[in-house]
Structures are given as C-alpha cells and as structure tokens.
Amino acid sequence: MREKKPDKRKVQGAETRKKLYEIAKKLFSERNFSDVNVEDITDEAGITKGAFYVHFESKDALIAIIIADYVAGADTNYKTFVGALPNEMPASEVILALTEKIADELVDTIGCENMKKIYQMLLTGSVDTEAVKGYGRELYLLFYSILDKGIRRGEITSSLPPEALSRHFVMAIRGVSYEWCVRSPDFDLKVQVVEHCRLLVEGVKAK
Fold this sequence. Notes:
Strand content: under 5%
Pfam family, one: TetR_N
GO molecular function, one term: DNA binding
CATH topology of the largest domain: Tetracycline Repressor, domain 2
Keywords: DNA-binding
Low-confidence stretches: none
Order of helices and strands: HHHHHHHHHH
InterPro entries: Homeodomain-like_sf, HTH-type_Tx_Regulator, HTH_TetR, Tet_transcr_reg_TetR-rel_C_sf
Oligomer: single chain
Structural class: mainly alpha
Distance between the termini: 74 Å
Protein name: HTH tetR-type domain-containing protein
Number of strands: 0
Number of domains: 2
Radius of gyration: 21 Å
Largest sheet: none
Mean pLDDT: 95
C-alpha cells in the first residue's frame, strides 16, 4: 500500500502560519505590541496582508496566541523557581519570593506598555485570553500548593480554603500591576507588589 502524501497546501499553510508567528514574536520582543502593525509582520515575512488574515483573525488574535505560549513558559519557570527554594522555607517567605519573581518578569520582560495592551484585551474580550485569566492557569495552582503546604504545617491560618486564598493573591498581583499601568513611570511595581502581598501574608500568618 502506497504511503499517502501530505497535502501540499496544508503543509505550506502550516509553514506560513509558523513563519508569521515567529516573525511577530521577534518583532514584539524588539518593540511594544502597539508599535508593530500587521504590515510590519507581513513585509518581513514576504507575504501579503491578505495571507495574514487567512491564518489569524487580527493582530490581537496573534498577540493572544503568543501571550498564551509565553504564560505557559513563565508559569513553568515560576514552578521551577519555587521548587528550587529550601523545603523548610516558611510559606509566607515563599509567597513573597514568588511575588518578587513575578514582578521582575512583568517589569523586565513584558514591560508596562505591553501590560496595558494585555489589560485592554482582557477588558474588551475581543480575543481569547483564558490562558492569562483562567483559574486553571498553573500560577493559581502554584499559589494553591504553597498555601496548602503552609496550612498543613500550621504556618498559615484562614477561614478561607487554599483555593480561595490563591485567587486573592493572584488578584492582588493583577490589581497592583494595573495600578502600575495607570501610574507609570511614577510607580515602582517591584516595591509596591511585594509590599501589598506582604500585607496579605501578615493577615494569614499563624500568630
């Protein structure tokens, strides 16, 4: 029986989509999301704008895919970071160390202008942002595991279950990050987000 040849058009389509993705990712790493338009991407890819819209509904749709992949990688890095901390380290200190790590990532890798674009996409709901906001995101699970361990060790006490507590910590980081977008450059995210989460930690630490 002869082996079925792959559909040439499908293969070419997949290659074009991947090329657009990689070029957009490179351009977005060099400039803010708002400073790159579809034409910049297609010019570098050597294809027409019409071909772009065959593969992606809009620039925002492509950004959402890139962000989803980035979030998955970042959350894996956060998990690795926490896993490398001493096992005997109190849960409260682990939370603050993780919060500081997240703040570093937001400031040094994503940047304020790109965070504004991400919040705009979250607020308008124009594209799928479940990878960022979904409760199934690995970041929520990571906070859950830290808090659950702290509760079992008697380091943390709260009337709320660890699942609810984890959501509050992520909401706090998201809220302070939004404040950063509103008040930048007169707002130090790295200082403020750790300070805010320290207040939350003090509220749940066993006395």
